[in-house]
Design brief:
about 270 residues, globular, Porin, 3 helices
């Protein structure tokens, strides 16, 4: 598999739903939320990439009204082999106008997974009703073979009653070679806690990196597009289902069709 085929998935779409959007989906009354899901992705051409599978388990714990942490584990299966990723992270309100999101993860078992990843976002709430959020963040991802990416990003979120509107710009510095690229995320959400949340996420931009598997290293700069529709629905006061359908296209690469199904329970 080329480097592009796993970097874009694990870096760019790993931050597809930013912390300030996730904070809109806070759980009430109960202190814990347990989520379990499985995903299937069909790649075209299939004979070159095969099918991808993923199983995921996550636990969110609300320690106080200003602090929530989570732990998450994933098992992945690709044609290149099987692997696992573990993540720990937290959301923290520091003042009436500032909250942060931090996460650390490590993966192993296959070269398509990152070895280490760190994310941190600052989120500033502004406006009379604190319904505008300005976000700035950074991500560092390290892969085997001394490959790494450093991403800085910034954007804004607007909360209007049941609507959530979000835009974010990402600047990626891919190494070796210090190859720079930009990508964008536009997200539109609608819903309310204890009822449903629906998000349409559109991500597009460049995948740029130095292909060093050849005799002469070559810079790659391909367009990419991802469209994902996510839905979470409460079937009862403390439990429900969630899922996602997605489409991804990489220029001169492949197309990918994905589906995710999951359940959650609050206790």
């Amino acid at each position: 598999m080329s480097r592009a085929s796993f970097i874009f998935v694990s870096v760019f779409f790993g931050i597809l739903l930013p912390a300030n959007i996730l904070m809109a989906q806070t759980f009430e009354e109960k202190s814990h939320r347990l989520e379990a899901s499985c995903s299937y992705e069909y790649l075209d051409p299939r004979n070159a990439y095969g099918d991808w599978h993923k199983a995921n388990l996550a636990l969110y714990t609300k320690v106080s009204s200003t602090f929530t942490y989570f732990v998450e584990g994933s098992l992945l299966s690709h044609r290149e082999g099987e692997g696992a990723v573990g993540t720990i992270g937290a959301y923290k309100d520091w003042t009436s106008f500032l909250y942060t999101y931090s996460a650390f993860s490590a993966g192993g078992g296959s070269d398509y997974l990152h070895r280490f990843r760190a994310d941190h976002d600052f989120n500033f709430k502004i406006g009379k009703n604190k319904n505008y959020v300005i976000t700035t963040g950074a991500t560092y991802v390290y892969y085997s073979g001394n490959r790494y990416d450093f991403i800085i990003s910034g954007g804004a979120t607007l909360y209007l009653d049941k609507w959530v509107l979000h835009y974010r710009l990402f600047h990626n510095d891919s190494n070796p070679g210090s190859v720079e690229s930009y990508s964008h995320l536009i997200s539109i959400g609608y819903g309310a806690e204890k009822w449903q949340w629906t998000y349409l996420n559109v991500s597009f931009g460049k995948q740029a990196y130095l292909a060093n598997v050849m005799a002469e290293p070559e810079r790659v700069n391909n367009d990419s597009l991802n469209v994902a529709l996510q839905h979470r629905h409460w079937l009862g006061k403390y439990y429900g289902i969630f899922g996602e359908t997605s489409y991804f296209k990489l220029e001169d690469g492949y197309e990918k069709y994905g589906i995710t199904c999951g359940i959650f329970y609050e206790f």
